[in-house]
Specification:
Blueprint lengths: L16 H9 L11 H7 L3 E6 L9 E2 L23 E5 L5 E11 L11 E4 L9 E5 L6 E3 L3 E5 L5 H10 L20 E12 L4 E8 L3 E2 L11 E4 L3 E3 L5 E6 L7 E7 L2 E4 L7 E2 L3 E5 L12 E9 L9 E6 L5 H5 L11 H4 L22 H7 L8 H9 L1 H8 L11 H25 L2 H9 L6 H15 L1
The structure holds a DNA duplex (11 and 11 nucleotides).
Length: 471
Amino acid sequence: MSSFHPLHVASSDRGRASSCLLAQKSPVSTQSQGGTEMLEKILENPRLVVVEEPKDRGMRFRYQCEGRSAGSIMGASSTDNNKTQPTIEIQGPIDGLKKATVTVSLVSKDVPHRPHPHCLVGKDCPVDSGICVVSINPHANRSHSFANLGIQCVRRKELDVSLQKRRSQNIDPFQTGFSKGIEDIDMNSVRLCFQCELEWEDGRKDSLSPVISKPIYDKKATTTSELKIYNLNTYRGTCRGKTEVYMLCDKVQKDDIEILFRLGSWKANGEFAQTDVHRQVAIVFKTPPYEDQSVTEDVEVNVVLRRISDQMESEPVSFTYTPVCLDPYGVKRKGTKKNNMLTSEKSCGTETTPPLPSFFHQTPNVMSSGENQLEKYPQGVCLDEVIINQLLELPELLNALSDSSLPCTPGLDTSAIFDDLDMSFNQNFSNFQQDLAHINDIQFNMLVNENQNPQAERQDGVLQVKTEEEQ
DNA sequence: CCCGTGCGGTC
DNA sequence: AGACCGCACGG
């Protein structure tokens, strides 16, 4: 019997014929946690298991030319105060086992798992080898954590040189033969592949079946990177939808991204075109209508970014749909609190205070287009749905509203975007005021006085904006 | 306070 | 894609 076999080998002459049979019936049921687990543990041969996966995202693959080395792959469950590394464990019987040598290499994400041209660099990676080799004594410690494993990417033009090197090292865990497909290798993802050679007291050697980790994705590639929502300029809008929202996010691909609104089994997409994706880091979209148009209370739903190609999602942020109140008696009810907003849910008597959009500290009541604009203005005045509708009938106002598109001046950084937003706010606000000036004063005063006097803070806000505009 | 290192922005 | 650079952080 050959002493070096690429597959799961049991040495029957060590008196474990039955375990050999069993192993052949269920070769790699390493994840089994069932009731027969103990039995299997006793009977099966040693096996290699990944007990801590590598963190799949968040690390940039580094070029050799970047000098300082490529950092360390963390464990999937690693946290700031409890750091972990990718870890393997030798499970099963190890009586008579002298030592184990584990070789880690990179393989392609998809089957067949070919040797990957990218390199592993770090503590146990011989210089220029691109692989990692450790020797472990399973009797002392069955598991081994790989601290300081970095991924160093090779340039495309060095791709075949690198593969050639791997061949000369005899690294081809899944016997793919280095054959073809040199060009279509995905350079933005890899898997760790662990091969384990066992050396027994009697001199015999076995190789365990190679095991692979979950994929690891290059952080720099927007096609695979993590999705993150940083901020929305508003977190509220009516259940009718069409609220214009500005989202700041990590880099996205404009042709491969969607915004999902979700609650329970309901879901709908935020509406935007590719041209509404600004420099990959901001999206201007309109909220979809909520499924139920007749809600009487605020409804909190989740908003996520989702990459279409791999269905990857960001962490959710919550967005509140506010009711549209059509009850004329309900809306006649006057606000009882100071600082009521001109929002339809206020006129319906609910109590929640809208959160300040956190990236507009200077001008919390950002104007945008459509009914959202009305919802936000004037803060501190209590008007109700009837008045909103009356205001909306005024042609001057309609013009003001429809004229409020945001100029998308190319900015070099996000602060420039904020400047744009602020400018736009001021312009729109000023237009709005001018147009309000055309409204019959008596008409307007009636509308306002019938409800509540503007608050002092609000007047400050108006004054401030006006001053800026005049300068 | 300096330096090596990790990290991220940008060209 | 590949390289370069600067900042922040920890020793």
